[in-house]
Amino acid sequence: MVQGSLIQPPRRAIGSGRSCLLSRAARFRRDEDGSMLFFSMVVLLIMLFVGGMAIDMMRYEAERSRTQATADAAVLAAAAMRQTRPPAQVVQDWFDKADLSDSLTGVIVDNGLNFRTVRAQTRTVTRPYFMQMLGVDELRSNAASTAEERRTNVEIVLVLDISGSMQGTKLTRLKDAAVEFVTNILEEDTENRVSISIVPYNGQVNVGPDLRDRFNVLGTHNRSYCIDLPHSSYQQLALPTSTPMYQHAFADTYNTSNTSTSWSTSNMTPGTTNVWCPVNSTNRVRVHSNNLTLLTSQIRNLEAVGATSIDAGLRWGVTLIDPGSRPLITSLANGGIVPNTFRNRPFDYDDEEVLKVIVLMTDGEHWPNEFVNDDFKSGDSPIYRHSDGYYSIHHPGRSGSNKYWVPHRSEWRAVPWSGSTWCSAWSCVATATRNPLPWQTVWVNLRVQWVANQLYRRALGGSVNSWVEHLRTREGTVIGAGPHEVSRMDTRINTLCTLVKQQNVAIFGIAFEAPTNGQNLIRNCASPGRFYDVNGLDISTAFRAIRAQISALRLTQ
């Protein structure tokens, strides 16, 4: 034992302690215990944040939808023209009751002659709970809702077939459908914005004396009031009142008579029921009216007779809605024929507040149109009638001094028939009837074919048909009950239909138990999607469908 020495504890080497620390760090780095907990915490935080954002967006969308729904309902109520309160006040009340007053930023009201437009501007502001952590303090949406009620000025023309084939049940069903249509249309019109015109047509259109007198019509008479329209009138929309046109001669161009080469009075007098333009005051055109009593009464009293000239019906229908006829309608209003409310109609085609409608209806197809040629419509004829009822005619082109043909004597004379069995030029002068008959008087008393045969063909030779064609024109050919060569008439209506549709006029076509040719004609004329091929009682359904397409109130945005 060594005295006086201190015993020192053993010391760990410095190098060995550092290596231990490094060893522990390495073990910590390699140890994966607790790593999933960290990842799960991160994912949970992300999910909570995304969920919070979704809640913010759901709150925002719910508030925006509620504001939009309130705005839509408010402007619809405010735009109603029956609404007597100020539109802006109506909108404000809707937002107040929905507790959304702060969302309404403005109301714009536009009133016109026959419309009201209301526009509500809104702003939806929602303060988010979670998105504020991203610096988003509010969610904002600006929107607008617009509603409009437009009391459109409407001009309706019913172009209705009243030809002979419409007799019986078909005419009754047409009347029922048209009366219902007119009644419902006018009962809904509380602002006098709708005018209805009626154009009944058969082989011609009876315009009546009031319309006739406002056109430049030649050869006038007061038996019936149809006008022979020139072919050129179908190539333009307007029918100027200054255009020279002949009144349709009151003549029987259709019925045949005895074509014997000897004297005969068989079938000499006209068959008035087959005159192209019959005397009938109820079948006349009615111009721009909203008098329900007058319109329905006229429809109820329509009579079916005669042939079918769809082109003429449409031509007059277009005339009544063409703005070129405004001076005509104003003149009729001045005369008390048209209500003063409609004195400025027809409106312009491009007037956005106007709806022009033509309802074109037929049960048939074109029948060749017939009319007396212009030279034989008016003025003095070369025909004489003595008090005994016998006729004679002057043919100045015949050689010699005897230029008067006396058909019942089958002889030529120097003077018209005077009732004598024989006379010289000198002895009969005092008693002879020296005043020729006006052509209008001739046609009231004699058929065209009888005149052609007895007064022309027997006197001058030739064929009956050639002399008939000399006196009258037929636009096409007739072969029994059909088919008919009427391409000229078909072309005219097709041309006019195209011109009308280019002006955005709504043409509704109704083929009522019509043959194929008639169906195709109306289908081609009608506006797209506005053709109705109907049978029986379906004609009422067609008129109801047409009425339903005239809408007033709509949500425009």
From TrEMBL:
Keywords, comma-separated and alphabetical: Membrane, Transmembrane, Transmembrane helix
Database matches in CDD domains: vWFA
PROSITE patterns membership: VWFA (PS50234)
Transmembrane keyword on record: yes
Keyword Ligase in record: no
Pfam families: Tad
TM region(s), chain numbering: 36-55
InterPro entries: Tad_N (IPR028087), VWF_A (IPR002035), vWFA_dom_sf (IPR036465)
VWFA domain mapped to chain residues: 155-206
UniProt cross-references to SUPFAM superfamilies, sorted A to Z: vWA-like
Domain of life: Bacteria
Name recorded for this polypeptide: Flp pilus assembly protein TadG
